[in-house]
Amino acid sequence: MLDHQPKITDGFAKLCEIVAKLRAPDGCPWDREQTNQSLLPALIEEVYETAEAARSQDDAHFREELGDLLLLVVMHAQIAHETDRFDIEDVIEEVCDKLIRRHPHVFGTSEARDAGAVLKQWEAIKREEKNANSHYLSSLPKALPALVRAQKAQSKAARVNFDWTALGDVIAKVEEELVETKEAIRSRQEERIEDEIGDLLFAVVNLARKSKIDAETALQSATDKFVA
Fold this sequence. Notes:
Distance between the termini: 43 Å
Structural class: mainly alpha
Helix content: over 70%
Order of helices and strands: HHHHHHHHHHH
Radius of gyration: 22 Å
Oligomer: single chain
Number of helices: 11
Shape: globular
Strand content: under 5%
Largest sheet: none
């Protein structure tokens, strides 16, 4: 039987020590100059590079990119620590508490038996934690890429049964939006064209989601095919 628990060594502590040394007065001038704000572009870039490495199914590349991403997480926490805001231990403790709290079917007495039930339970717990009176989609990050944000919004809505019942209904919606887009193009009204193309894209993302296809991955594959 496979042991699914990874071997934990002192490697993470070593990484934290190295980052602290880089940020020290006698460390690296470039690293010392960085702030949480200045590192944001690198963080976003590394997330995309990690996703690309995962899609390539090249374990050596994937491992390297995960390391780069982990480095930035530790760097952000180290910068916060230097101004007494929080440190990496706080980050780890908070995410551990969250995982236990949001998985009562594993660590508690809940009986969510499939992935759909787990997701609905997760959303209910998260909503209770944040603010039960806030809009259901208010926590949807605005910084997400538009395609990802659309799919996430639809998925969250589906968890509270705000969704199309049949795939055919979604296809009909795509066809409806395409007709409206053609009409907008004939009108030559730029604002209307933009609005209808947005609705069409949103409907196509919904079609991908209902077909159990990740829209971002599908578009990446199509773009790769075009480039090749």
